[in-house]
Specification:
The complex is a heterodimer. Chain A is mainly α. In chain A, 61% of the residues lie in helices and 12% in strands. Chain A is built from six helices and three strands; from the N terminus they run H-H-H-E-H-E-E-H-H. In chain A, strands 1-3-2 form a three-stranded antiparallel beta sheet. In chain A, helix 1 packs antiparallel against helix 2, helix 3 packs antiparallel against helix 6 and helix 4 packs antiparallel against helix 6. Chain A starts with a helix and ends with a helix. Chain B is mostly helical. Chain B has two domains: 95 residues; 27 residues. In chain B, 86% of the residues lie in helices and 0% in strands. Chain B has five helices and no strands. The longest helix of chain B has 30 residues. Classes of the chains: A mainly alpha, B mainly alpha. At the A-B interface, helix 3, strand 1, helix 4 and strand 2 of A face helix 1, helix 2, helix 3, helix 4 and helix 5 of B.
């Protein structure tokens, strides 16, 4: 119930921010539609811990700045490779282990790897808890295998359930 | 004065964004195969686009436009990797052979050749 209310609130705030027209009619209809959508989400099953993982938001604010720094760092290193006349790439395709257990955690880790330039998650194997990852350089592959991001995603995910 | 400063900061962000977009485009032309080209493209669509949007946020100031730009950035950062993953997974499934280096690569090349299901057991047996 609390999650449904939070989803309704999030939808309403989203409406207010995107609309920019604050007449009684528009605000009230936005509120009504938000509540109806949240109730529909409860019925249809997207207002759950996977579709609206609001309790992860605090851990998210700890994780995303770190991710942003990683993106900047690896973007610069990939850009250096691109602009190097010798094009010093050593592409790798390898499996890496995944510690995250929840769908939110696994999706976050897979997306984080892909978002970081120089590494792409090609396959997700949840049966064996591992990803198939393509990396542009050996150094990038070693970075993923070192597991720093895996550890942080685990932290972001919270308790495994 | 503040306006001038704001324009300069915005210009720096836009310039940096343009630089990374250009680098991504150059990389897409220089890289040898699909997967490595995707790495080059991801420079453009993460850092390049983000820096452009941050520059535009500075130009927009504290308005609803800024909020929309921030939403735009969030959506791009959530959706970009999904599209990249889908493309890479589809390419591998369709039998595109990645160009790889050294020993670890040679092992994975075998894995890439095998059908998706059998790959896992085969690799497991080796390890």
């Amino acid at each position: 119930m609390l999650r449904t209310a939070s989803l309704a609130l999030a939808l309403f705030v989203f409406w207010l921010l995107l609309s920019g027209h604050y007449t009684v009619w528009l605000v009230v209809s936005g509120l009504v539609v938000s509540i109806l959508l949240a109730l529909a989400g409860r019925r249809l099953g997207f207002a759950d811990d996977e579709g609206h993982p609001i309790e992860r938001i605090v851990d998210g604010w700890l994780y995303w700045p770190w991710l942003a720094r990683e993106i900047v760092k690896s973007s610069i290193s990939v850009t250096k490779i691109i602009l190097d006349p010798k094009l010093p790439i050593s592409p790798q395709l390898f499996h890496t282990k995944v510690s995250a257990r929840t769908p939110v955690g696994v999706a976050t880790y897979a997306n984080s790897i892909t978002l970081t330039p120089g590494t792409i998650t090609v396959g997700v194997d949840r049966e064996h808890d591992r990803f198939l990852v393509h990396a542009l350089t050996k150094a990038g592959a070693d970075d993923v295998e070192a597991g720093e991001m895996d550890r942080r995603v685990k932290q972001f995910e919270g308790r495994a359930e | 004065m503040i306006d001038l400063l704001r324009d300069i900061v915005a210009g720096l962000f836009l310039f940096a964004g343009a630089f990374f977009l250009l680098a991504g485009a150059i990389g897409m032309n220089r890289m040898p195969d699909l997967f490595t080209r995707m790495h080059a493209a991801s420079v453009a669509d993460t850092l390049g686009v983000s820096l452009m949007l941050v520059g535009m946020v500075f130009l927009a100031g504290f308005t609803l436009v800024t909020v929309k730009l921030v939403f735009l950035m969030a959506f791009l950062l959530f959706m970009g990797p999904v599209a990249s993953h889908a493309l890479a997974a589809a390419a591998l499934q369709a039998g595109v052979k990645p160009v790889l280096a050294d020993d670890r690569g040679a092992k994975a090349k075998l894995a890439a050749k095998a059908p998706a299901r059998k790959k896992s057991t085969r690799k497991r047996g080796k390890a």
